[in-house]
Amino acid sequence: MKAYKESIFPLALTDVAAFHQVLANIAIQLETHRLPDRGTEKAIDYEKYEVETRHNAALQIIRKRLMDPQEATSDGTIATIIAMICYSVSCLFLDPHTFLTVYST
What we know:
- The protein has 105 residues and is mainly α.
- The chain has one domain.
- The chain is built from 5 helices and no strands.
- The longest helix is centred in the middle third of the chain and has 25 residues, at 41-65.
- It is globular, with a radius of gyration of 14 Å.
């Protein structure tokens, strides 16, 4: 977690794709660590929507960047892809029947 905080989070403050992905990661972590009796259905639905929206926004930006040789190797693109890997690992710990699939698009 320390490496994530020190390397990806600072880039997320200057890169829009990394920012969206970090927000998705934060939302998924909140859902992962929530006690079952603490959240209401409405709160869970909002977090699910937030995760999907932010992750999909980051995916769209990264898809465009990977078409450009200069953007494909930028610090922001690499940081976003690393954050997406962290996101995928976090999804492995969730029950897919009650939350979301890893890639909805």
